[in-house]
Amino acid sequence: QANSELPFMMGDAEVDVAELDYVLDSPATDFELFSAPRRPIEAREQAIGIHAARLVHDGGTLQLGIGSIGDAVSAALILRHERNVVFGRMIEGLAGKEARKFSDCGVFEEGLYAATEMFVQGLLELVEHGVVRRKVDGALVHAGFFVESRAFYRKLREMSDAERSRFRMTSVSFTNQLYGGEDERAKARVKACFINNAMKATLLGAVISDGLEDGKVVSGVGGQFNFVTQAFALPGARSVLTLTATRESRGQVESNIVWSFAHETIPRHLRDIIITEYGIADLRGRSDKDVIAAMLSVADSRFQPALLERAKTAGKIDPGYQIPSAFRNNRPEAVEQLIRKWRDDGYLSVFPFGTDFTKTEQRLLPALATLEAASYSRLKLAKLFRDGMAGALTESEWECIERMGYHRPHGLRGRIYRILLKGALSGSRNAR
Prior knowledge:
alpha/beta
């Protein structure tokens, strides 16, 4: 089925027209492509991106997952390449001077090659900024498929055939594993860094990415497990799994680092590198007690005491162990303060690669997140209502209220929603 919005991609995915029995190619079947909306990058996600960017070696191989953390990693790699001094200051700000011992912080002289299941906007940006420029069999990127923004489709579509040929579409079995060509793929995928997202991790290094304890499926495993096993099969390769240290559920903050979990995606015997906004936990080849200490160092400090006590009760860490003072201030406000400063200085952006959201919708996003978080707390809702009743609407707030259809509210419920939205918008404006 042909589509005028799709770019024609070269590579193993090409088939001869003689193999086709039917072709749908008419205005009746030429629908608008699905596009994945690019969400704003949170402060803690940008911190994760900066930490991850210091693990990618020049002349190596990169794989990235989709989403805001993937965008944050790509933006940080570009910053490292183009504003290297600033990038170094960010590392020291987030992790201290000692962080440079576990880093590759230089510019990309040789450049990277990408072998990834999913071709994402961040990889395209890395090519355009000269970070990904190491060719393998004539290609800068080998990928299995893509689902991205309208701008991504358009940019590829408007390229010349020669430019587009740098991105080769191939089978997922090629990108996600080594079998069937181990020697050639190993030579190509030198110094590989496979970066993927997770939901939770245990103190012993197991990772949860696709399901909950009650059996509920949140997403497919995708190629994550394949890339983890590749990292152990390839000399010098590393698997990097990223997650925010906490999450908010029904108005309550919970730790994403837990003692144990009834479901696992990546078992503890395949533990490697885990990153939160608070730093990097290097787990490969370490004893359980050292793994626990490393995981505690990247956990949120509000949950560190209970986690440490659980590990001591289980006899997995020395009874007298204390978390070093350098890791006892792992709090969101500390990260947010640093990221806000770098945003104000123009080094970081919540939408580094643009977005399909309008300016009004971009203003709405944090306000709607505030409303969702407040919906489980009468106290928080009361505060929003009070803020919403104070003062007149600004022009930008009115545009947001119009976009949500509350400029002419229906009934009491509609008027209450309008007041709450104004309160959330006011709070978001003050936070900025």
